[in-house]
Amino acid sequence: MARKVAKKSAKTKTKAKTKKATTRKSTARKGATKKTAKKAKTTKTKKTTTKAAAKPAPVQKQRKASVPRNRHTLSYTQTEWFDNVMGFCGLEKRSQAKELCTDMNMLISECLKKGYKIPLMGLGKMYVRKSKARMGRNPATGEPIHIPAKKRIRFTASKALKENVL
């Protein structure tokens, strides 16, 4: 135990000596750099050129939808959809595309809650429709049942969309 303490104290003494030596050298260097900086200022003439901040190159918009990975169902995953939105809108990051989609989702749902009709340019209209209460039949037993009134979201496709797709 006593040997370990003696070794530790010897190590700490040598560390302290090296610290003092390095601080002396660094202060000497600081003084030297100040002197050279003053000399450089006096010898230099006014040569100040300001460079314009380089603007990042705009992202090229891709006007073609990518093929979904799942070719059987032909449905996009969320990341594939965000990549398509990113390409079509010319956004730099996928997070920007995700934020855009989230904001549009919130706007549409908020408008539909209030009962507004939403025109989607070139696609059609979304609106809320109220269905009446009616009588129906249970297909298994054939007995009549009451179907209550409820609200449904409807989408009416525009003529342009029908011509492009169908």
* Measured distance between first and last alpha carbons: 90 Å
What global shape is seen?
Answer: elongated
Task: Give the overall average pLDDT.
Answer: 81
Please trace the helix and strand order, writing H or E for each element: HHHEEEEEH
Helix content: 40-55%
**Percentage of residues in DSSP E strands:** 15-25%
Structural class: alpha+beta
* Largest sheet properties: 3 strands, antiparallel
Q: Count the DSSP helices.
A: 4
β-strand number: 5
Give structural notes.
The protein is an alpha+beta fold and 166 residues long. Among the domains are: 59-114; 116-166, Irregular (HU Protein, Chain A). The protein is 49% helix and 16% strand. The protein has four helices and five strands. The strands form two sheets. The chain has a three-stranded antiparallel beta sheet with strand order 1-2-5. A two-stranded antiparallel sheet has the order 3-4. The N and C termini lie far apart (90 Å). The mean pLDDT is 81.
Could you list some keywords that capture this structure?
HU Protein, Chain A, single chain, 5 strands, alpha+beta
Brief account:
This protein has 166 residues and is an alpha+beta fold.
Draw up the topology in text.
Layout lengths: L1 H42 L34 H12 L4 H21 L3 E3 L3 E8 L2 E4 L6 E4 L2 E8 L1 H7 L1
Antiparallel strand pairs: 1-2, 2-5, 3-4
